[in-house]
Specification:
With about 500 residues, this protein is mainly alpha-helical. It is built from 18 helices and 10 strands. The radius of gyration is 24 Å and the shape is globular.
Length: about 500
């Protein structure tokens, strides 16, 4: 009896102190939630649309709750710049999530999901220095990317031969996957190679499964913190299994590298990392860190680029007047035969502006990756507790009438200055900004320009005769991707 009494008094005390703590906090405003569940249903799954809409009601900083957890949404250029640039160190942590733990383990090794700190810093710096040291400096990256271009063009030619209407997705996935495979495993694969097709299959499976992450039911794992240790929904199990398959693939490659490792002649990222581990100079670099960094390269660096290129081809089919100007510039600068180089962009402002406009209009990573404050802090007078998730609405900037003349139209002029050159646009952040900015930005920018120009140099793109316009509403997954579509590709020679 006495035990019950003590337990009841303790419970009342905890509830009371929680209420006092919560009341004393001046959290940002936000929509009313359902008891226990919170207000997450107000923003999932279409974050890109719902967050800017709610900002109209609650302001550029507002709060969403998921059980005991707080999500802070930031909307618009001023506040996003203040947090990611001016106060970058405070807001460069990543919130813990069940998904990150399932994919990266409890300690969240690697780069993208890793907490802000020495482990993240060591792995990110090592990745960037390996891009340089392996000869993958700007020119070297370019060689890896351009050596894939003829295979990409050939693959598209093959698609044209086997039918009138072409879905370009697979060819684009082959090319972007091979760029990352070359950097990580040392060599490109032939597109028919069994190991390559296996890698493509498991990588795609991962992205398909990832769609479940935006389902409202997923947030039950945020409401009940230890639930994932007790029970996993089937869809989550399949997602974790898909991530595990990529890890298995990576581990086989690491083993192969360990057998043939020669510190004097590093072939790729794995060789460089093994040398670092053998030298044992940095306690924050571990075998797990290597595996998880590679997982990051595949998960952050393949689908993002191929999806952007899929949007590019879709927009070219929907906007023939833009495509005509792109073709004119390519013919004037390169002709039909000369292979494109990255520095050609200096003389091809219209093509460059078109690719930037594709990135703006498609906004494939509408809230980037979730940020978190490293300690209790405030934003514009509101309390922001440590451990909150911070959703950055890049999408809101990319579609803001304050920054773009016709934000809902596809118009490369958005990036052209009065003298016809490509200008910087502050409110354009497709790769994020600040300390957590995309680590593969150099590779991505080159892939987009070189593959876009390389394809448009060889093909005319048209929508099918019976289609008025290819749908531009996105499928919401880890990225915003186009619905499957087909176009007519007419070889230009
Ligand atoms: C069009 C292609 C790409 C887009 C739009 C893109 C976009 C982004 C965005 C928005 C972020 C999150 C930034 C933030 O947290 O604020 C990110 C992070 C990251 N990206 Fe990319 N990315 C692309 C391609 C690539 C490629 C090709 C690679 C690798 C070669 C890559 C590797 C990474 C990594 C490792 C991170 C995590 C950075 C960190 O947490 O420190 N990305 N990317």
């Amino acid at each position: 009896m006495l035990n019950y009494l003590i337990a009841t008094v303790l419970a009342l005390l905890i509830i009371l102190s929680l209420k006092i703590v919560l009341r004393s906090r001046n959290l940002p405003p936000g929509p009313r939630g359902i008891p226990i569940v919170g207000s997450i249903h107000k923003i999932v799954p279409n974050f890109h649309e719902t967050i800017p809409l709610l900002a109209k009601e609650y302001g550029n900083i507002f709060r969403i709750s998921v059980g005991p957890r707080t999500i802070i949404c930031l909307v618009g250029y001023d506040i996003i710049k203040e947090i990611l640039v001016d106060r970058a160190k405070e807001f460069s942590d990543r919130a813990t999530s069940v998904i990150a733990k399932l994919c990266r383990g409890e300690s969240r090794d690697g780069i993208a999901s890793s907490p802000y700190g020495p482990k993240w810093s060591a792995n990110r710096k090592f990745l960037l220095s390996t891009f340089r040291n392996l000869g993958l400096n700007k020119r070297g990256i370019e060689k890896t990317i351009t050596s894939e271009l003829p295979h990409l063009v050939e693959e598209l030619h093959g698609c044209c031969r086997s039918g009138n209407l072409v879905d370009p997705s697979l060819a684009l996935e082959y090319a972007t996957l091979n760029v990352i495979a070359s950097f990580t495993f040392g060599d490109r694969y032939d597109y028919g190679d069994k190991r390559f097709l296996e890698l493509l299959h498991i990588n795609n499976e991962f992205f398909q499964m990832s769609r479940v992450l935006r389902a409202p039911t997923m947030f039950i794992y945020s409401i009940i913190p230890f639930l994932h240790k007790l029970v996993l929904f089937d869809s989550v199990k399949q997602f974790a299994k898909a991530a595990r398959k990529i890890l298995d693939f990576v581990q086989v490659e690491v083993k192969r590298h360990l057998h043939t490792h020669d510190p004097q002649s590093p072939r790729d990222f794995i060789d460089c990392y093994i040398t670092e581990l053998k030298n044992n100079e940095n306690q924050f670099m571990t075998e797990k860190g290597m595996e998880m960094s590679i997982m990051d390269l595949f998960q952050a660096g393949t689908e993002t680029s191929s999806t952007t290129l899929r949007w590019a081809i879709l927009f070219m089919a929907n906007y023939p007047q833009v495509q005509e100007k792109v073709h004119d510039e390519i013919e004037r600068v390169l002709g039909l035969q000369r292979e494109v180089r990255y520095d050609d962009r200096m003389r091809m402002p219209y093509c460059e502006a078109t690719i930037l406009e594709v990135q703006r209009k498609a906004s494939i990573t509408p809230i980037g990756l979730v940020h978190a404050p490293s300690h209790d802090t405030t934003i514009r007078g509101y309390d922001i507790p440590k451990g909150s998730s911070v959703f950055i609405s890049y999408h809101s900037m990319h579609f803001s009438p304050d920054h773009w003349k016709n934000p809902n139209q596809f118009d490369p002029e958005n990036f052209l200055d009065a003298d016809g050159s490509v200008g910087n646009r502050d409110a354009f952040m497709p790769f994020g900004v600040g300390l957590r900015r995309c680590a593969g930005i150099e590779i991505a920018r080159q892939e987009l320009f070189l593959y876009f120009v390389g394809i448009l140099q060889k093909f005319d793109i048209q929508k099918p005769d019976d289609v008025k316009s290819i749908p531009e509403d996105p499928i919401v997954g880890l990225t915003l991707s186009p619905h499957p579509y087909k176009v007519v590709l007419r070889p230009k020679f």
